[in-house]
Write a structure and sequence with these properties.
Elements lengths: L2 E7 L3 H14 L4 E3 L8 E6 L6 H21 L5 E5 H7 L1 H6 L5 E3 L7 H8 L5 E3 L21 E5 L1 E2 L10 H4 L4 E2 L2 H13 L4 E5 L7 E3 L5 E3 H8 L7 E5 L8 H9 L6 E3 L7 H6 L6 H14 L4 E8 L6 H14 L3 E6 L17 H24 L5 E9 L5 E5 L5 E5 L8 E9 L3 E8 L11
Parallel strand pairs: 1-2, 1-3, 3-4, 4-5, 5-6, 7-10, 10-13, 14-15, 15-16, 19-21
Antiparallel strand pairs: 8-9, 11-12, 17-18, 17-20, 18-19, 20-21
This protein binds 5'-deoxyadenosine and iron/sulfur cluster.
Iron/sulfur cluster binds next to helix 6.
Length: 454
């Protein structure tokens, strides 16, 4: 009997990857993915803890499932509700206590045990697993059977040892861990065999990746990328999220040498004042970041940079904030994500005495975002009338239209036939829209795909 499984994903791409893997582990047990929770036999909320009031939002989402769970019960069936991800990790047993709707609480390190947890439930029991185990969850998972399109994620690294003073990740995702090279290569080849053309390597600190290479040498992310770039049929590589401290020479050189490595880099700086960077425990100064950007641009002049920013970190003065604006003006970002600092219980900065008032934070955020928007628009305008390579990924909003991505990760709308999904085509950009580009097909001639020889 097929059972219906609905997974709702919040937050980062790592969670998107984890949700796909949860679907993979449940598939052999008869669970097939559906796109709405109505009538589902199992609902998984794969949660994110990075934003404010994350736990409260999960409890209200759970409240919305109550009627559906009751309907199912009225038919004599059970809707199993599982909470996964970082909120599950942080809340643990509290979740089972606070909400009678929750049947399973499973942390990000143990979701390969979901089938066991379901089996443990029995008729009306509860199950919890928030361990940080030593066994490798990736070993325990079946191969992906199908992919959603030509662009896929592949987790190569997890966790974080950096302990930025504002961040919950080191507590919810645990210590830094890199997957073995052989496992990553096998997964990448498998994805390519399923039709994937672009792989984004994922990790909370992806460029902290390290491991023994196929040549027995110690490899970092740069060497891994060089190796993966040799897989025939794989056309594009990306990676995210990086820490400035881990951008080593090998990785920068890969940007210079590997045509398959796309010229887009998300490299969060968070702030432009050395005092704030120090209080955040970022481990680098603003000038270190400027120099690093200089080295990366020397290797790959057209690289598009993106960053995360936090305004109103405890103790941030007007002058500190001006230093952030200065850094933004000097570096220039193609895309950015900016947030007001908000205290996360249990993190060192939450206990700091000099919290910044909310109206000051709001004002700084508005000023920063105006500058960042200006830069993002200028970057997009620069693409106007140029031909860019686009990997066509999926149908667009209107019939006959497809959506793809440029090398710089911009969404591009173009009129093209459905069978062109998976092709890399040349598109002349004719219009810049707020969050995407529109263009016309210049050539359907795709980049030749080398024979899939591993
Ligand atoms: N307050 C505001 N922003 C935060 N981020 C992480 N923790 C906090 C916090 N406590 C932001 C950082 C990080 C991004 C994923 O979320 O900018 O890079
Ligand atoms: Fe959080 Fe800092 Fe680690 Fe990034 S590097 S996950 S911001 S602690």
């Amino acid at each position: 009997m097929t059972r219906k499984l609905f997974i709702k994903t919040y937050g980062c791409q790592m969670n998107a990857y984890d949700s796909a893997r949860m679907a993979d582990v449940m598939a052999p047990h008869g669970y097939a993915i559906v796109d709405a929770p109505d009538g589902a036999d199992m609902v998984v909320l794969n949660t994110c803890h990075i934003r404010e009031k994350a736990a409260e939002k999960v409890y209200s989402e759970l409240g919305r499932l109550r009627a559906l769970k009751q309907e199912k019960a009225a038919q004599g069936e059970r809707m199993i509700v599982a909470v996964a991800g970082c909120v599950a990790q942080a809340e643990g047993e509290e979740m089972l206590r606070r909400s009678d709707l929750v049947d399973i609480v499973v942390g990000p390190q143990v979701y390969h045990r979901l089938p066991e947890l379901v089996a443990r439930l029995g008729r009306d029991g509860k199950a919890l697993d928030t361990e940080f185990p030593t066994d490798d969850k990736f070993d325990a998972m079946p191969e992906t059977k199908a992919v959603e399109g030509p662009a896929a994620f592949l987790t190569v690294q997890e966790g974080c040892d950096k302990f930025c003073t504002f961040c919950v990740v080191p507590y919810t995702r645990g210590a830094e861990y890199s997957r073995p090279v052989s496992q990553i290569v096998a997964e990448a080849r498998h994805l390519v065999d399923l039709g994937v053309r672009e792989i984004t390597l994922l990790g909370q600190n992806v460029n902290a990746f390290h491991g023994a290479g196929v040549d027995g040498e110690a490899w970092g992310l740069g060497q891994l990328i060089r190796h993966l770039a040799r897989i025939g049929g794989l056309e594009r590589l990306r990676y995210t999220t990086s820490h400035p401290r881990d951008m080593d020479d090998e990785l920068i050189a890969a940007h210079r040498d590997e045509a398959k490595l796309m010229p887009y880099l998300h490299l969060p700086v968070q702030a432009g004042s050395d005092t704030v960077l120090e209080a955040m425990n970022r481990g680098h100064t603003a000038d270190d970041y400027r120099r690093l950007v200089g080295r990366i641009r020397a290797a790959r002049p057209d690289i598009a940079l993106s960053s995360d920013f936090i305004v109103g970190f405890p103790g941030e003065t007007d002058r500190d904030f001006e230093a952030t604006l200065d850094l933004v003006r000097e570096v220039g970002f193609a895309q950015s994500f900016s947030f007001k600092y908000s205290a996360r219980p249990g993190t060192p900065a939450a206990a700091a005495r000099k919290q910044v008032p909310d109206d000051v934070k709001a004002d700084r955020l508005a000023r920063l975002q105006a500058l960042l928007d200006e830069q993002a628009t200028a970057f997009a305008q620069d693409c106007l009338d140029r031909s860019i390579d686009v990997l066509l990924e999926k149908p667009g909003r209107y019939p006959g239209q497809l959506i793809g991505r440029s090398p710089y990760l911009q969404a591009v709308h173009v009129v093209a036939p459905d069978h062109a999904i998976g092709d890399i085509v040349s598109v002349r950009v004719s219009e810049v829209m707020p969050h995407s580009l529109r263009g016309e097909l210049v050539s359907t001639a795709r980049t030749p795909i080398a024979a899939v020889a591993h």
